[in-house]
Amino acid sequence: QATPIFNFSAGPAVLPKEVLEQAAAEMLDWHGSGMSVMEMSHRGPEFISIYQQAEADLRELLAVPPNYKILFMQGGGLGQNAIIPMNLAGCCAQPATIDFVHTGSWSGKSIKEAKRYANVNVVASGEAGGFTAVPQQASWNLSSGAAYLHICTNETIDGVEYNFVPDIDARVPIVADMSSHILSRTIDVSKYGVIFAGAQKNIGPAGLTLVIVRDTLLDDALPICPSAFHFKTVAEHESMYNTPPTYAIYIAGLVFAHLKKLGGVAAMEKINIEKARLLYAALDADDFYENRVAHEYRSRMNVPFFLRDESQNDKFLAGAKARGLLQLKGHKSVGGMRASIYNAMPLEGVQALVDYLNEFAGR
Ligand code: PMP
């Protein structure tokens, strides 16, 4: 019996085994069509049915209201850092101002990119504290008449997750980068103007980017916005203005169906809470390990941690690998370790990691 493998990669990341098995079984001949999904025209009835089911299942899973469009785009999270300002910054007198909360690496990248298209106001930053908390909303220096407020609701590298939805002037849309925790917890979509997420963490393969956008925000683009990235154009063409990432949409659809079978997002959230509780408890048990994030903002998806004695890092990683616990090395910008425990990471995987953490610490 081979050691089971648990992949803690931050993304591309583990996918449900059942989904991969189904994709393998359907690889050469999808539902008797004689074709692989990869070979199908995106305008043919087979792929249209795959697309429509994926869209409907995602709408159901996140309870997306009817006045929101779901767009299946390309370009990743970083692409959206340009696509969103180009789509929303045409709303007001030029140059528009965009408000940002700086909570870590990914919101930092969003800030940098947005400066090419608009004035940027960083309303609060967690940088001085080493990105270990979301700055209290009472301290935010919001501008009046901002085109929108951008937040990253789960910082994948820093392991900082929002536990609240900002309560701001209803005329200012909230744009949320949910790349690394979408579908891991219930959300109220109606509180946001735009939600976006690269697929390669909690959804499916890299190459697909999900955008959920309120219909009143479809047509505020700057004139420079490329047609293929213009929300209104993409929405009017049901994400098929240009060829969409068809195979990635197919796999995402299988993941959505799988999540529905497991009881939906609320059921996943319950398991995610339990997995995170188990892992943080092992890290907090004594001084051997350290997670520096304030408890109320600790991410349920991405858990960075350090060995107090960093000279043992290589030994820790080698021992983990020997036990089938893969991809635990932290992001190069922060060092240490990181365990990403997305929806598809089973409780047994977290338990195996916890057992190893205890063993390595000599507990
Ligand atoms: N935002 C967040 C929160 C992320 O975790 C990532 C990727 N790790 C990105 C944006 C960038 O996504 P992409 O590589 O798809 O451009």
From TrEMBL:
L-glutamate binds at R43. It is found in: Cytoplasm. Pathway: Amino-acid biosynthesis; L-serine biosynthesis; L-serine from 3-phospho-D-glycerate: step 2/3; Cofactor biosynthesis; pyridoxine 5'-phosphate biosynthesis; pyridoxine 5'-phosphate from D-erythrose 4-phosphate: step 3/5. Its cofactor is pyridoxal 5'-phosphate. Pyridoxal 5'-phosphate binds at W106, T156, D177, Q200, N242, T243. Residues 5-353 form the Aminotransferase class V domain. Binds 1 pyridoxal phosphate per subunit. InterPro entries: Aminotrans_V_dom, Aminotrans_V_PyrdxlP_BS, Pser_aminoTfrase, PyrdxlP-dep_Trfase, PyrdxlP-dep_Trfase_major, PyrdxlP-dep_Trfase_small. Pfam families: Aminotran_5. Its EC number is 2.6.1.52. The modification N6-(pyridoxal phosphate)lysine is found at K201. One of its GO terms (biological process) is L-serine biosynthetic process. SUPFAM superfamilies: PLP-dependent transferases. It catalyses: 4-(phosphooxy)-L-threonine + 2-oxoglutarate = (R)-3-hydroxy-2-oxo-4-phosphooxybutanoate + L-glutamate; O-phospho-L-serine + 2-oxoglutarate = 3-phosphooxypyruvate + L-glutamate. Its main location: cytoplasm. GO terms for molecular function: O-phospho-L-serine:2-oxoglutarate aminotransferase activity; pyridoxal phosphate binding. Signal peptide: none annotated. Catalyzes the reversible conversion of 3-phosphohydroxypyruvate to phosphoserine and of 3-hydroxy-2-oxo-4-phosphonooxybutanoate to phosphohydroxythreonine. Belongs to the class-V pyridoxal-phosphate-dependent aminotransferase family. SerC subfamily. NCBIfam families: PRK05355.1, serC_1. Homodimer. This is Phosphoserine aminotransferase. It comes from Massilia yuzhufengensis.
